[in-house]
Every structure is written in structure tokens, then in C-alpha cells.
Write a structure and sequence with these properties.
heterodimer; A: alpha/beta; seven-stranded parallel sheet; 43% helix; B: alpha+beta; six-stranded antiparallel sheet; 12 helices; 24% strand; globular
């Protein structure tokens, strides 16, 4: 059997990288995408690629993808030359609108870009028998909250897209997975006080994704406790919900 | 939460992530928080765990950043036939920490300690200068850094000689001994074994004083390769203070003595790291935490000395389970490395009133017997008692002074004037 490949769109995200480690441990070859072209990578990115190679003795390749600046050709190039039996793709880019990004940029990175990628992948690469297409969405998309509804709505759109794609691809035996990690302790949340029982590490999310792929799951919560929590949050009547400051 | 593994620190500390940020401050590197006492705690600590990249593997020689855990090395390579040469009782220590403590394992009597298999070290000095040291290059830096408790600079990278293993299993044999004398003879009788260690009952008294089970192990041939498993059980909360009493520990020890002696093939995990399978096991000592006490005394004084000390421990009613006895081979010439030829005993004491005065009594016995204390476990030994055990301490202090390394300071180094 030829080696399987695991592609992470957004190689510098903590969850993306942790998941690459998890799949490399299982012997997958790894492709990581970065905003920079492969010959212009920072020394830090080069070091993390080398780390994967040395640790797991698998092939690791960098490719270029910028969620805020891409074209049809970028996407074609991204999958170019991948003549593999099975490939699994994880979209791990997520942008929080606010200080560092505009709402439009968040819509592009969290929704438009993965839709363009996964549409292309599912329409044009059927012959490759995909392992899975995986999107990192968010519990924030399950219900709009006063504190972060711009971000939440981009994730709601992405979740709904992934639901539909899963349904659409069911006959072709391509699995589509929606990951809703809940709180994650990453460099983004460094220094924030997060409730321990609700907070997953990037490694825990990676484990959940790997096992979700093996079991053919649809939606994954990294900490199972989020499932009942979000069930309740979704079912609080509007009249009550709008008064809550959550 | 930054604390030691004994969870008994009450002093304030400030954590930094970047080496640039501690410039001009007194600080100590902090890896994965597995030191039991105050050796990796200080007013300022530099967190090194995240610098854990693997840099190269050339057959069986590995170069890693010092924040990598031994567990990461084992997870990556054990099933491919490579294993660290020396492993302590937990794999959840960083490579930098293993070097700074010059940790020992069950094969010390034959193969020495961790640093005896370290080919070279990269060190960032407080001045900002980077140096490489090994037995050949800057050998004085190597001797001071191995076992040097992080007081010579920040270990950033290490080149490690790994061991080729024929499987991920250990062929274990076990031998029950009903007295201390039998236990010591049992070590002697099995000194050819690659790995040996004894679990010893420190609660039993009278005729059963020193009853033990000696475990020996060899890497098993033709037993196959399996990937390591993650911790499945965890201690969910701090145990209440009444959970560990003399009677419950005594009951545990009796059960253990009756059932634990097993022979046959066991996994690397269960042979080397049984406690790692229980995540956060240190919570069982309750909210005050615990102290681990480890010393070594020379072979010629072992029977008499251990009898005295173990009698005191047994009489005190303070002993916990998990007392470990091990025979050391010859020590190396690093200034502060702990192992020296003799027997080492390690045990936990739950922190409770009167403990420190009691340990002080034990300290005196250990020193009288020509023994010494393990800095990685230590939390309370006096400067005076510590100094008596380490003849090279003067050379270490002089080295620190000569190279202006006094910015490296832990609570321990301040207490002991290292």
C-alpha cells in the first residue's frame, strides 16, 4: 500500500501542527501550507518541518496558500502532482475579527477560502479517493452571541457548508468532518484564564480528529462535555438568551 | 501552574518564556516541573518546555532541543528500535532536566547515568554567549553542566547516544526477599542484570524490616514492537488528608508484596514508568503536597546504615508506599552528579507537621554514614549537611565564579550556596 498523505491548510496553526504530528506518528506523509512560498519560509517554519521529518521519518513538504490572497490557479497548484491513493485534508485556518483582522477578512479566511478549496477538491479530485475533508469550525457558530457574532457567523456558515458537503459526498464515500474544539489552550489563548474542564490542548484536539477520521465521524467536539452544553445553549429561548451576557 | 512535583512550594515566582527577557535577572530554567523540590524554582523561572524540536537523527545519534521530553523520544522511536540509554522513573522529564540532574535509572550499576551517554551539549550562558561542550570540547563546562542543576546556563540542545533495542518488551524476573540483608545480597547475586531495582517496604518492622521485591530486566529478543500507550488513568482531584494513613499504606504494601512479584515479558512502560500511567499521581498526597527523600550511602556501610535509617522511618509511622532501593555502580567525575558506588533509597513523605525535624534527624544519619543527598529530590537539607556529601562542590562554586554564572539561581542554589 502506498503511503497516505495528510495535508494541513494553515501549517502554523497550533491545532493544524498538532494534528500533523498525530498523523505523521501513524506514518502519513505530511504537506503543510504556509502563506509564504516554500523557498521563502521563516527559519521557524523550516525548523518545524525538519522536526516532523526527524521525529517520524516521513516525507514532509511545504506548499503555499494564503487564505486572504488566492486564485483558482493557487488552488490547482496546491493539489498539483499529488498522485496518491488517499489524501486527507484539514483546513485549520481561523481568523478572529477585531484588532488584527477585519470582518471581511474573517469571512474570507473562515468561509470563502475553505469553500473554494473543498469545492475544488471534491469536484476535481474524486479519483484520488479522499480519506476525509476536515474543517475546523467552532462552537461559536452554534448560536450567535452578543460578544462575538461576527466570528460566530463565519463559523456558522462554514459548519453549514460542511454539513451540506458531507451530505452531498455521502454516495462517493468521501467523509467530511466538522471539528468544534471548544476552548483550546494555544498561543492565541496564552495568558487567558480558561475553565480547565472545558479546555482542550491542541494535542487533544489532534487525537480527537485522528480518531474521528478512523471512525468516520461527522461532527467532533474535542471535549465531549461541549455537546450537551451546546445542545442547551441552542435551545434557550431567544427571549431569555438575549438577556444573557455570554 | 508552575510548581514542583511535590506541590509544596509557597513562594512567589515570575515566569518568562524567552531567554532575552531574563537578561540581567537572576533566574533558573524550568522544564516539565518534575523535580520534587526547589531546584527548578526561583524568583524568576525561564520556561523551556516549548523548545522541543527534534533536529537530526543519524542512525542512533539524536540531536534535540532540550525542552523535548524523554517520552517524545520514546514515542517517536521505541517502536522503531531506539530507546534512551538511561531513563529515570518517569519519562515526563525534559532532556535539559535529565542532563541538569544527571538522572540515573535501573541500569546505573552497569551503564552509568544519563550524562554518560550525552555526546555534547549546547549551552546559552547568562552573558548571551553560546558554547558547545562535551568530554573533549570545553570539558570543564561539561563536568559542571551535567548534574549542575541548571546553574551553568540554559541547556538549549543535546546530542544523545540512543540504545538499539530488539523489541519494546522487557523480560522481567522478580525475587522476594524477607529481610534487608537478603535484599542487599539479592542485588549482589543479580549484578549482571542490565536493569535492577527493588521495591522495599518501609512500614514493616521487626523481623520483616527491609522486606522487598527485587526486579531485574533485560531487553527481550524477538518479542516484537508496539507503540507506547498514553496515560489512561488519572487522579481526578487532591485526596483529602486522611486518605493516606499508616494503616492504609501498610495495607497497600502488604497487598503489593503478596501480588507484585511477576516474571515474564512486560512492556517498557510498565517496567520503567509504572507511575506515568496514572496522570497527576502527586495529587494523592493532598493539598499540602509531599517531599521525596533520596540519599545514597557507600556499600560498606549499607547493611548497618540502612537498618538504622529504616528502623527510624518505620518507627516514625510517616513512611509512604513506593520506597525504592537501588544499587549504584561507580559515579562519574561531574562535579555535582549524585550517583556514587553504594545503595540509594528513595521514598515519599506526605508533608505534615514535624516532618522537617524528622528528616533533619535522618540527614545526620546519612552524613555520618558517608552518604549524600539528591538535589533533584531535595527540599530541605541544610547547607552544612549537603556540603559534606559533595567533595567537588568547591570546584563547582569556583567554576561558577570564574565564568560569572551567578545569575543562574534557584531557591535551592540560594539555600545551599551552590
Amino acid at each position: 500500500m502506498s503511503k497516505q498523505t495528510f495535508m494541513v491548510i494553515g501549517g502554523s496553526s497550533d491545532v493544524g501542527l498538532a494534528t500533523a504530528h498525530r498523523f505523521a506518528l501513524e506514518g502519513y506523509n505530511i504537506i503543510l501550507t504556509f502563506r509564504e512560498a516554500p523557498d521563502q519560509l521563516s527559519s521557524d517554519h523550516e525548523a518545524l518541518i525538519n522536526d516532523l521529518k526527524v521525529r517520524y521519518q516521513v516525507g514532509v513538504e511545504a506548499r503555499c496558500f494564503d487564505a486572504l490572497d488566492y486564485s483558482g490557479k493557487t488552488i490547482v497548484d496546491l493539489f498539483h502532482g499529488l498522485n496518491l491513493d488517499r489524501i486527507t485534508v484539514l483546513y485549520a485556518i481561523g481568523v478572529m475579527p477585531g484588532d488584527t483582522a477585519t470582518t471581511n477578512e474573517a469571512i474570507a479566511a473562515n468561509y470563502s477560502a475553505p469553500v473554494a478549496l473543498f469545492d475544488y477538491a471534491s469536484e476535481h479530485l474524486e479519483g484520488l479517493r479522499f480519506g476525509a475533508l476536515i474543517g475546523i469550525s467552532s462552537v461559536a457558530g452554534d448560536r450567535g452571541r452578543g460578544s462575538n457574532y461576527h466570528y460566530g457567523s463565519t463559523k456558522a456558515a462554514f459548519s453549514t457548508y460542511l454539513d451540506g458537503l458531507r451530505n452531498h459526498l455521502h454516495d462517493k464515500a468521501i467523509n467530511v468532518i466538522t471539528v468544534k474544539p471548544g476552548f483550546i489552550s494555544t498561543k492565541m489563548t496564552d495568558g487567558l484564564e480558561l475553565p480547565e474542564r472545558l479546555t482542550a490542548t491542541a494535542d487533544e484536539v489532534a487525537d480527537a480528529i485522528y480518531s474521528g477520521v478512523q471512525k468516520g465521524r461527522g461532527t467532533i467536539y474535542a471535549k465531549k462535555i461541549w455537546q450537551p452544553i451546546m445542545f442547551i445553549i441552542r435551545h434557550i429561548p431567544d427571549a431569555v438568551f438575549k438577556r444573557l451576557s455570554i | 501552574m508552575i510548581n514542583n512535583w511535590g506541590r509544596n512550594n509557597t513562594k512567589n515566582l515570575t515566569a518568562f518564556r524567552k531567554i532575552e527577557d531574563v537578561k540581567g535577572l537572576h533566574f533558573i530554567p524550568y522544564g516539565n516541573g518534575r523535580s520534587y523540590g526547589d531546584s527548578a524554582l526561583g524568583d524568576n523561572v525561564l520556561l523551556t518546555r516549548k523548545n522541543n524540536r527534534f533536529l537530526s537523527l543519524n542512525e542512533d545519534v539524536l540531536i534535540v532541543e532540550a525542552g523535548a521530553l524523554l517520552s517524545e523520544i520514546i514515542d517517536a522511536y521505541a517502536h522503531k528500535g531506539l530507546f534512551p540509554y538511561v531513563v529515570p522513573g518517569t519519562k515526563l522529564v525534559t532532556v535539559g532536566g535529565a542532563i541538569a540532574s544527571d538522572v540515573h535509572g535501573k541500569n546505573h550499576h552497569k551503564e552509568g547515568s544519563f550524562c554518560d551517554h550525552v555526546l555534547s551539549i549546547k549551552l546559552a550562558l547568562p552573558s548571551g554567549k553560546l558554547i558547545t561542550c562535551s568530554k573533549e570540547e570545553n570539558p570543564d563546562f561539561f563536568k559542571a553542566t551535567c548534574g549542575g542543576m541548571g546553574l551553568t546556563g540554559v541547556i538549549t540542545e543535546a546530542t544523545l547516544q540512543l540504545r538499539k533495542i530488539p523489541s519494546t518488551f522487557i523480560k522481567q524476573a522478580s525475587y522476594k526477599n524477607s529481610t534487608l540483608e537478603e535484599t542487599l545480597n539479592s542485588f549482589e547475586a543479580h549484578k549482571e542484570a542490565t536493569y535492577s531495582v527493588a521495591w522495599i517496604d518501609c512500614v514493616a518492622s521487626g523481623g520483616s524490616l527491609g522486606q522487598s521485591i527485587l526486579f531485574t530486566g533485560e531487553h527481550a529478543e524477538h518479542a516484537g514492537f508496539e507503540r507506547s500507550q498514553k496515560a489512561k488513568v488519572s487522579v481526578p482531584f487532591e485526596f483529602p488528608d486522611f486518605a493516606l494513613q499508616k494503616w492504609s499504606v501498610s495495607l497497600f504494601n502488604k497487598l503489593y508484596y503478596a501480588t507484585a512479584a511477576k516474571n515474564g515479558y512486560v512492556s517498557l512502560q510498565s517496567f520503567f514508568f509504572p507511575l506515568d500511567s496514572v496522570k497527576d499521581w502527586n495529587l494523592i498526597y493532598g493539598r499540602h503536597g509531599f517531599v521525596q527523600y533520596q540519599f545514597v550511602i557507600p556499600k560498606e556501610n549499607a547493611l548497618e546504615g540502612l537498618t538504622t535509617i529504616m528502623q527510624k522511618i518505620s518507627d516514625s509511622g510517616r513512611a509512604s508506599f513506593l520506597a525504592v532501593l537501588k544499587e549504584f555502580g561507580k559515579g562519574n567525575d561531574n562535579y555535582l552528579s549524585f550517583p556514587m558506588e553504594g545503595f540509594t533509597l528513595a521514598l515519599d513523605f506526605k508533608l505534615s507537621s514535624g516532618l522537617y525535624p524528622f528528616l533533619k534527624e535522618l540527614d545526620k544519619e546519612v552524613i555520618k554514614l558517608g552518604g549524600r543527598f539528591y538535589l533533584t529530590k531535595d527540599n530541605c537539607v541544610s547547607k552544612e549537611d549537603f556540603e559534606k556529601g559533595y567533595p567537588e562542590l568547591g570546584a563547582f562554586r569556583a567554576f561558577r565564579e570564574k565564568h560569572q554564572l551567578q545569575a543562574m539561581q534557584s531557591f535551592q542554589s540560594e539555600r545551599l550556596g551552590l
